[in-house]
Amino acid sequence: MKPLTERQQQVLALIRQSLAEEGMPPTRAEIARALRLKSANTAEAHLRALAKKGYIELLGGRNRNIRLIESGNSPPHALPIVGRVAAGAPLLAIEHIEGQASLETLFHPRPDYLLRVQGMSMCEAGILDGDLLAVKRTSVAENGQIVVARLEDEVTVKRFERYGKRVRLLPENKAFAPLEVDPARVTLVIEGIVVGVIRSGRL
């Protein structure tokens, strides 16, 4: 299949997200609004490019006439790559998705997305700035697992430890202090557990 431009990758990611979450593809107007395109006609041009490259099929007669072509043409396991996350926004919001990565089943359990690391707070665990983390979506974690956690409005990657009714989010870098969290007073949401690391520049 022909490679996609960055914008085409974003449109394809939005289609996949809409199908997964809503059970139907987005309209042209929804694509234009989500990606801040000039108009629905611009969205239509991107859809036609995706169809020409074999990623989707445009059916006749309906506004939501997009069919995702998976078998035979699409990669068997295309994961969204999540980059910088805006405070308070959903982790997999379309504006955070840099593109897609095609992976065989390299990790167990099978991940749901890739998260780009920012900073060096986990460097002693072999997780460096710019690396991609393979993340399995879950709302629960066991002691010792490395998690993607939302603490109030900020997303962080730390090792999880629960003691009594409190939680510690532990860095793997002696220059950083642990985060002591009382879930009764501070909003803490586990977004997923880390199941693998892809070194920066290796994908």
Fill in the keyword field for this structure.
Umud Fragment, subunit A, 19% helix, Arc Repressor Mutant, subunit A, alpha+beta, 203 residues
What is the radius of gyration?
19 Å
Q: Which percent range describes the beta-strand content?
A: 25-35%
Biggest sheet details: 9 strands, mixed
What's the CATH H-level superfamily name of the largest domain? Umud Fragment, subunit A
Number of domains: 2
CATH class annotation of the largest domain: Mainly Beta
Shape: elongated
Terminal-residue CA separation: 18 Å
- Average the pLDDT over all residues and give the rounded result: 84
Q: How much helix is in the residues? A: 10-25%
Instruction: Write the H/E string, N to C.
Output: HHHEEEEEEEEEEE
Report on this structure.
This protein is an alpha+beta fold and 203 residues long. It has 2 domains: 6-68, Orthogonal Bundle (Arc Repressor Mutant, subunit A); 78-198, Ribbon (Umud Fragment, subunit A). It is 19% helix and 31% strand. It is built from 3 helices and 11 strands, in the order αααβββββββββββ. It has helices at residues 6-22, 28-35, 40-52, and strands at residues 56-58, 66-68, 78-82, 97-102, 113-116, 132-137, 146-151, 154-163, 166-170, 179-181, 188-198. The strands form 2 sheets. A 9-stranded mixed sheet has the order 4-3-5-6-11-7-8-9-10. A two-stranded antiparallel ribbon has the order 1-2. Strand 1 and strand 2 form a beta hairpin. Helix 1 packs across helix 3 (40-52) and helix 2 crosses helix 3 (40-52). The longest helix is centred in the N-terminal third of the chain and has 17 residues, at 6-22.
